[in-house]
Amino acid sequence: MAISERAKEITDNIYTAYGSGTGVLFGIPSAFREGVRAIVQSAIGEGVKCPFCGEDGFDFKGLKYHLTCYCEVYQDTEDLC
Ligand SMILES: [Zn+2]
Question: Angle 5-18/33-44 helices, nearest 10 degrees?
Fold first, then answer.
């Protein structure tokens, strides 16, 4: 799942408001911060879905980056012009 800038910002705000100075959040070790971001991304339920491979959670900039650099389904699609 791609994490949007908004999900990252919300996660940072949660850590600032409720986390400790060591990055521990509600007893969750700091090494799991990426997992917390994924939870936040799912919870806010927003994002653009790639119409080629179905991966979701992108903002527009992230979708363009995904299509250009990572989406093999898109890259394997025949050009029409
Ligand atoms: Zn894709």
Answer: 120
Residue 45 banded pLDDT, cuts 50, 70, 90: confident
* Number of other residues whose CB lies within 10 A of the CB of residue 1: 13
Residue 51 CA, ligand 1 centroid: distance in Å: 7
What is the rounded CA–CA span in Å between residue 57 and residue 80? 27
Residues counted in the chain: 81
User: 50 CA to middle of ligand 1, Å?
Assistant: 5
CA of 71 to the centre of ligand 1 (A): 4
Least confident of 1-5, 38-42, 63-67, 70-74: 1-5
Enter the pTM of the model. Answer: 0.55
Element (H or E) spanning 24, and its range? Answer: none
